[in-house]
Design a protein that fits this description.
It is found in: Cell envelope. InterPro entries: Peripla_BP_I, SBP_2_dom. This is Sugar ABC transporter substrate-binding protein. One of its GO terms (cellular component) is cell envelope. With 329 residues, the protein is of the alpha/beta class. The chain has 2 domains: 145 residues, Rossmann fold; 154 residues, Rossmann fold. Helix content is 40%, strand content 17%. It is built from 11 helices and 12 strands. It has a 6-stranded parallel β-sheet with strand order 2-1-3-4-5-11, with helices on both faces. Helix 9 links the parallel strand 9 and strand 10. It is elongated and about 65 Å long.
Length: 329
């Protein structure tokens, strides 16, 4: 969620051949096993990198890759159509980042009942076991890392915290928020949190949210953001108020734009996640199923790394050189 959580992405229709036939390596070979990838959108850099990982793994495994995407973030209907088309095309497995984690479940059940392995990437369904497996970032840990960092960076100074969140009822947003609170060593409702606003992960909404928080509590000195677009929006508001040098901003995602913002000092630290790895491991799991009949199961953690150029004692981190070498977008 996420970068991938940004609103306002361009609408993209399904790709060619009914649900976006896109051969990866073995694509087009007679008898090649097929695997499908369905993302929330096609233009978001997070999903572009995910597709790159799927293409790389499909080529290595001699599989035919079919791809599809929603027309916008939240487009459940197009994702349902993509599932149906891929099942009809005879895929062995489908990798999906569900736009609507509840409404997509009946379509996933039909696919699984037809013998197709379904793996969620990045975003779990509700319930999580509606898919065979989940390959994703530990979003609670991602939040916890930046919470630990912020706590250490404050070095005992009293905190006045603003949380720029996602939106009510979205799992990724809640996990990151709760992880941050735990990392900072506080509970929900703690008086140190002086303002909370929803941003839907959007830069413009992040700016508005930060402006609102500054009006409510001008002495804010720590800002947690759901993702880097929200963080950059917050930075714009802080800079306009002359506070961009005195307020600590932390975030999650690890896209190239976000890592460059860390490098420039606009964001103090971010938790980097790895969409390419999610897709590679998902395709490999489907390949194994096609060969042996062994289905993947459970949660597979694809890793998270704290990125900062201002390391603090007691919190493991990598610098922005590492972040830029492993970023996306």
């Amino acid at each position: 969620m996420n970068a991938r959580l940004s609103a306002g992405l361009l609408a993209v229709a399904l790709l060619a051949a009914g649900c976006g036939g896109n051969s990866g390596g073995g694509g087009g070979q007679a008898g090649a096993a097929k695997v499908g990838l369905i993302t929330k959108t096609e233009t978001n850099p997070f999903f572009v990198k995910m597709k790159e990982g799927a293409e790389k793994a499909a080529k290595a495994d001699g599989m035919e890759l079919m791809t599809a995407a929603g027309k916008f973030d939240g487009d459940n209907a197009t994702q349902i159509t993509a599932i149906e088309n891929m099942v009809a095309a005879g895929v062995k497995g489908i990798l999906i980042t569900p736009s609507d984690t509840k409404a997509i479940v009946p379509a996933i059940k039909k696919a699984r009942d037809a013998g197709v392995v379904v793996i969620a990437l990045d975003t779990p369904t509700e319930p999580q076991d509606a898919t065979d497996a989940l390959f994703a970032t530990d979003n609670f840990k991602a939040g916890e890392l930046i919470g630990q960092y912020a706590k250490a960076a404050m070095a005992g100074k009293p905190a006045k915290i603003a949380t720029l969140d996602l939106a009510p009822g979205i799992t990724v947003g809640k996990l990151r928020h709760d992880g941050f609170l735990k990392g900072f060593g506080i509970a929900e409702g703690d008086p140190q949190v002086v303002c909370s606003q929803d941003t839907r992960g959007d830069q413009a909404k992040g700016q508005t949210a930060m402006e609102n928080c500054l009006q409510k509590a001008p002495d804010i000195n720590v800002v947690y953001t759901i993702n880097e677009p929200a963080a950059l929006g917050a930075h714009t508001a802080l800079k306009a108020d002359g506070k961009d040098k005195s307020v600590l901003v932390v975030s999650v995602d690890g896209g190239c734009t976000g890592v460059k913002a860390v490098q420039a000092g606009q964001i103090a630290a971010t938790s980097q996640q790895y969409p390419l790895k999610m897709a590679e491991e998902g395709v490999n799991a489907v390949s194994e199923y096609a060969k042996s009949g062994k289905k993947p199961s459970g949660y597979h953690d694809t890793g998270v790394t704290l990125i900062t150029d201002k390391a603090v004692s007691g919190v493991d981190a990598k610098d922005t050189a590492f972040g830029l070498a492993n970023c996306w977008g």
